[in-house]
């Protein structure tokens, strides 16, 4: 039996289905998934699997602070493709994009440095950063090892709150990120074609 022939979509990158799927695929870059994964990797050993001594409490607090800082700052990272097709990574500032891997051999016009002012910080960037930070802190405090380390004396009501809060806050932040999208394309963003 012959397979059905699928006609290609006209202007596939600009088609609404492509844009919707690209937005859904890149939602992982807006949510603090990488930071949560890194935290969950180190949290069991830093907190001694929830059996915390004073040193474990300090190590866990430092881990939460470092991951929270990284989560907040990663909301301001962006990606830029210059006229030669080279991919540049940077962080948004009030003046424009500060590029990490800027090649000093290319001129300002060739690398698009004069156009980097369009990547300035905006209000929506701070909204996304604070929502990501809050979401990470909710997930970090909802971790069972962190709860055993810092909140071992709380009652069953608080345990129920800690268990259900990450799911609800994740759904709410996903809704907010979908309603208030950002044009910021962080490091590792999958769909860079819409940002060239």
Automatic annotation (TrEMBL):
Cellular component annotations (GO), alphabetically ordered: cytoplasm; membrane
InterPro entries the UniProt entry points to: DMP
Subcellular location: Membrane
Membrane topology, record value: Multi-pass membrane protein
GO term, biological process aspect, one: endomembrane system organization
Transmembrane segments annotated in the record for this chain: 58-76, 123-141, 161-180
Keywords attached to this entry: Membrane, Transmembrane, Transmembrane helix
Pfam (any one): DUF679
Main location: membrane
Family under the similarity heading: Belongs to the plant DMP1 protein family.
Stated name of the protein: DUF679 domain-containing protein
């Amino acid at each position: 039996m012959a397979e059905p022939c699928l006609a290609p979509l006209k202007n596939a990158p600009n088609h609404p289905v492509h844009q919707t799927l690209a937005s859904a695929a890149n939602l992982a870059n807006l949510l603090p998934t990488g930071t949560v994964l890194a935290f969950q990797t180190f949290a069991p050993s830093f907190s001694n699997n929830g059996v915390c001594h004073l040193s474990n409490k300090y190590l866990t607090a430092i881990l939460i602070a470092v991951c929270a800082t990284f989560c907040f700052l990663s909301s301001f990272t962006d990606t830029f493709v210059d006229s030669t097709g080279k991919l540049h990574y940077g962080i948004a500032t009030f003046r424009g994009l500060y590029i990490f891997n800027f090649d000093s051999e290319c001129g300002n016009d060739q690398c698009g440095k004069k156009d980097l002012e369009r990547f300035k910080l905006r209000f929506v960037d701070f909204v996304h950063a604070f929502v990501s930070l809050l979401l990470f802190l909710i997930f970090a405090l909802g971790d069972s090892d962190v709860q055993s380390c810092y909140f071992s004396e709380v009652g069953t009501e608080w345990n129920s709150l800690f268990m259900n809060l990450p799911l609800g806050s994740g759904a709410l932040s996903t809704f907010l990120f979908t309603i208030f999208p950002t044009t910021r394309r962080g490091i590792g963003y999958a769909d860079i074609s819409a940002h060239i």
